[in-house]
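Thread title: Can someone regenerate the structure for this chain?

I was given the following input by a collaborator and told the matching structure tokens would be attached. They weren't. Posting the sequence so someone can regenerate them.
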Amino acid sequence: MKQIWISKNGPPEVLRLQEMPDPIPRSGEVRLRVQAAGVCYADVAGRLGIYADAPRTPYVPGYEVAGVIDVIGQGVPNLKEGDTAVALTRFGGYSDVVCVPYKQVYKRLEWMTPEDGAALPVNYLMAYQMLMVMGSLHPEDKVLIHSVAGGVGLAALDICRIIGAETFGTASPEKHDFLRERGLDHPIDYRNRDYERVVNDLTAGKGVQIILDRLGGKNWLKNYRLLMPTGRLIFFGVSAMENGKKRSRWQMLKTKLQVPIYTPFKLMDDNKGVLGINLGQMWDHAELQRDWMQQIVAWYDEALFRPHIDRVFRLDDAAAAHLYLQERKNLGKVLLKP
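Best answer:
Regenerated them for you:
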């Protein structure tokens, strides 16, 4: 099999293609011939050395794949050789063959492309957990989505549109027309305008019910101020720790020093909630994710959404895929294809 390894922490050039023997599934696992693999921001953060859940280098990154099952391990129910599937991988997804615990594998609809399948597990499960499970999203809620043009951002926008929420989203101005067509109500040019002032102007100072924040740093306090009473601020990343192609210890320290303290007394007085999610810490709760994925697939089956695939890179061009994502050029999902 062919795999992409992170040889050491650093710029995209540290990614290396290696050939290894095909793995044999253990008890409770299935083996997939990968047709498409997702590229996530967590992969970039892991390569930079700023993602705490990543293993020590060298390792194979990758959290999600779509493919065809070709070998079944012992003790695997309801799956068979030849089934098309999507799967969450606890690293190792940048491969043309992977072995995965069956509890992290979902059958793929016959009319779902491998590209669409590989775009679902991470982005849509994260968005669903934030909005539907922890955010208690309701029709007509006002939702601010940061980095709305990214994979998680577009997944969140799709869910908000399905439920009927009013959406605000930060993105560079050249992406606004696409986002309006995708259903975003209020695109915000974060480069040239203060999004806190814009949201306050659009809501007459009332704020919003839900904010999805992958920024961190000084934005933690700005977003908290934008919550109306009963509002929920949900963290799913800290891109403020990133500074260029390499890890910056000063940038990491600076961001950590900006962490605010939300005391129980303040939260009670403000009637606000602060929540956080990390899909990489949900491996022991596959039964929860299965219920979420069933709803996501049902929406897909009803043609209520389709993930937007921006670019598909060859597996051996993973460094270019990382650079593309890190430079924030993407509109939606970036994939690798063996």
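The chain has eleven helices and 15 strands.
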